[in-house]
Design goal:
Four copies of one chain form a homotetramer. The first copy, chain A, has about 300 residues and is an alpha+beta fold. Chain A has one domain: Beta-lactamase. Helix content of chain A is about 45%, strand content about 10%. Chain A has 13 helices and nine strands. In chain A, strands 2-1-9-8-7 form a five-stranded antiparallel beta sheet, sandwiched between helices. Chain A has a two-stranded antiparallel sheet with strand order 3-4. In chain A, a hairpin with a 4-residue loop joins strand 7 and strand 8. In chain A, helix 1 packs antiparallel against helix 13. Chain A is globular. The model of chain A has no long low-confidence stretch (mean pLDDT about 95). Chains in contact: A-B, A-D, B-C, C-D. At the A-B interface, helix 11 and helix 12 of A face helix 11 and helix 12 of B.
Chain lengths: ~300, ~300, ~300, ~300
């Protein structure tokens, strides 16, 4: 059976089952999304590509952007990046402050909110025009110049930002934010506001499946070693305090967002993006996790 | 360059570098080991096998036994095992009690001490002769009837057991140990006392690289899906609060012990065991981590 | 209105109200007590004394014994005692292990279980015959040679001792228990097993209201300064994570036990003991707290 | 020996000893104070009053203002205030966020920063002109219309406010701040900026020693019961994670500020204010604690 046939079959069966959970209403704009949306797109290293359902419709990728942000900061800073934050799983929810107090302002990893704020701070220090330069990096990774921030969603994030404001000021109080907290938060909200379709998302992450080379011309985004390490971080830290569960059930490095998107990587094989906005209790797409679990079981292709 | 040549070269170069850290003196018997010992053994799925240095000398595998213990409990209990403990990385040292208090006696995963005590309790409940039956399982996995407990080391563990006694009684106070705490501790110490050589260790873990089939006759130890899940748990939880680091630097699922042993799995390719007793600050073999990091870099074979 | 009249009136009114909570069934023997028991005894510095209800019936004083244990250890060790434990309120339940991990085995204060275990360890090291010598000290404080341990209750404590066994071994793992954990636990359980009536209890604590002088012959138990400090510790730490509440509502230093007893001290005025076995959610006598709150309101005599 | 003679003698001896610690440089303005300043003022219920040293010089009372703020909020809200925060000692430093995460945004007590922010929020909701009305309340308590905010110090607080900004937004994220966090922070900084001399401070707190009646005309500030409860809270919570120590060594309810001021109350007897800007490791005036410890030892007047 081909990947395409397996995806079609699983898409149909998962769509027929009950969709259990709720929308991410704490960001007002995300509460307005049609909860029935469901799309999948696979981009293979051998050049094939396949999508189904709402795979061409853009949605808010939210925290999934933490991976490209990390990639750019890592490319710019090299291993010295790890003096500012770690790469260990956190064992705590994505926005916990407890760990920061114990570790004196050093976030556990770059894929929780505190870590992404430090990454944003690094990018502001390193880039001439942070907002523009970062967008350029994402466009290049995706081979897609139409990618852009959504002022509407960025504004909506900001209105619900008390916890992130707390995190950013808390890290600043330890000296691990170098720029103005408001500037860091604005940049962070802008990053989170990007909207991509499943097709665009799987293309933007394709270089992580393709040893660092991006479409359409195989431009090198970063070294092979850096790509492996980003995949390792996605594997151990990509799903907050459910990272073990995703490794256990799906067996691929990946990253989720509260907009209902999930992207997963099979190094050397493919990148795959799924979107369904209803979230399980841990804040990950209910259908997204379900589909990917069945997909790696059926294809017998997990990295383990 | 063949695996054998790479191993030989790295063995020599790592051996020439300074060995930084100390022996695990908190278990008296482990403090008597020659700190210069260094052995490596690789067992490939295609039938090849190669060892170097002290790879035929037995050493105390300690916590590495937590993986076979988990495997047997998982085989006996199926998914119902996960009502008794989780499979999320802990973010805490191996013998922390803090997490248990927050989670009311449910250990985060089976590869920290609290989780291994619950696994021991499960095995006592499920096996007719826990000590004998478990040994039989390990012998079968390794295809090696000479494997045995070391009463000398088990006794030495016991003399240094205050923290484990605390953990076991603490879990019991939440009702998540069903048998007598002393009986559970005795069984746990016996498991930790097993001594294997690098060759034997890589053979005992071979079924995890070989989709569940054990040497010499390809007997099925457990299902393909269970094997994948055990590898996923090793990847996210195998090195206590340094699991992210091992994924980041080595990129393979693995497990370490305070005796200085490390075993790592490349699913579908090989199992590899390294032994060098000097431990880094986090309690993992200094040379073992260093060798494996360079080995996966040189072979360009990590799972990521 | 005299103290006696106020006590009589409040005893009657509190007795008529509903008694809300439950018995301390986690120690089997305490579950067999008549839940309707209610007694009060007041011993004044000026020599007057008054009791009502079941004030002559002995009950298990449990954790209340932590105060005499502290007093004897303090008397023997002086200020050097405070290298082994602190005198700060804990902010955690009485048997929490979290604080101990953060503070490397140094209990926050002597009136939580971990602190009392360290006190027991100190007494074993300092006394020739710990069990006999401690009993002698309590008998002398109370002017009452008939006080004794209850083997039946000590045995019952032991059968429910997993949490205390965990605490004691955990502290031992940090080196802050010097003797054998089993020996320390046995002595601790024996202390907790003592049974006193309200009259005997208020007499045994009388020296803390009387600047260190005990009945009947005004023998000095310890210095004025030491007495003040023990009262201060009772004030800030006597009711686990409800110590603030007791200070707020009653305004006197005191100590409670899960047997339903409470003793409170008005320095320079009186000691008072109340017993009613039904406990509130925090493990303190429901009627005991209620009576004392109304008593200090009516007499307008709190220390604040 | 009279109080005056004891104060004179202790003032001289403490002043001759080495002053150990450092200024509170994290608030820039506080780093400019003459570290040698030392003043004491005692106001007795019987009408006598006595001061020595720099007792007429105004200094920044900082957190000491948390007590009048609590008093006004308690007066306005009654017991319903305690749905918004607790009155238990915290066991953590004054600006810890850990406790808030465990307790879902409910501060442990009103005398740590998180609690004072909730109190400020309550006052904003309850008062027509929060800044003016609060000042009026403090002026009335002190019988002193010249008391005022210091814009210079308020501005300096604000420049060092990352941790407090984190706290306020964190509590807001749990819904336990009702007004705009910036407005709450501005009001909080204004309160902390008040400057008083030792004389003025002891007079402003006099009503807590005098059962609720304030100078010069014995106006009732609040009920006797409310006064007792505020004193109880000062006793158990007034010195952050050193509250047990102050009870142990001094034995009076009190409150300290990082400006080096301490005020203590002997209910029914006196209020006393001490100022010396060098702080010990826990952030309390080194000489202030030392003087008060010796003062209560010499006068034999602690509440215990």
């Amino acid at each position: 059976m081909s990947y395409q046939e397996i995806i079609e079959e699983l898409f149909t069966s998962v769509k027929q089952e009950k969709n259990i959970g709720s929308l991410a209403t704490f960001i007002p704009e995300l509460g307005n999304v049609d909860p029935g949306k469901f799309g999948i797109h696979l981009t293979q290293v051998d050049g094939l590509s396949y999508g189904i359902g709402d795979h061409e419709e853009r949605f808010s990728i939210q925290s999934i952007i933490k991976v490209p942000s990390l990639a750019l900061a890592y490319k710019l800073m090299g291993e010295s990046l790890w003096t500012r934050l770690g790469y260990e799983p956190s064992g705590n929810p994505f926005n916990s402050l407890v760990q920061l107090e114990n570790d004196h302002g050093i976030p556990k990893n770059p894929l929780i909110n505190s870590g992404a704020l430090v990454i944003s701070d690094v990018l502001i220090s390193k880039l001439n025009n942070p907002h523009e330069d970062f967008l350029e990096f994402v466009r290049k990774a995706a081979g897609n110049p139409s990618i852009s921030y959504s002022p509407r969603i960025a504004e909506s994030e900001k209105s619900a930002s008390y916890r992130n404001t707390a995190l950013c000021n808390f890290i600043k109080s330890f000296g691990n934010i170098r720029n103005n907290p408001e500037e860091v938060l604005d940049f962070y909200f802008n990053q989170c506001s990007i909207e991509l379709s499943c097709r665009e998302l799987s293309e933007a992450f394709f270089f992580l499946a393709n040893y660092g080379l991006a479409p359409p011309d195989n431009d090198r985004m970063m070294t092979v070693s850096q790509v492996k390490r980003i995949n390792a971080i996605m594997q151990t830290c990509g799903f907050y305090d459910e990272s073990g569960e995703f490794a256990f059930k799906v067996g691929l490095p990946g990253k989720s967002g509260v907009g209902g998107g999930i992207v997963a990587i099979h190094p050397g094989q493919y990148s795959i993006a799924v979107w369904s906005p209803i979230l399980n209790k841990k804040g990950n797409s209910y259908r997204g996790v379900k589909f990917l679990e069945q997909f790696t079981t059926r294809t017998e292709l997990s990295i383990f």
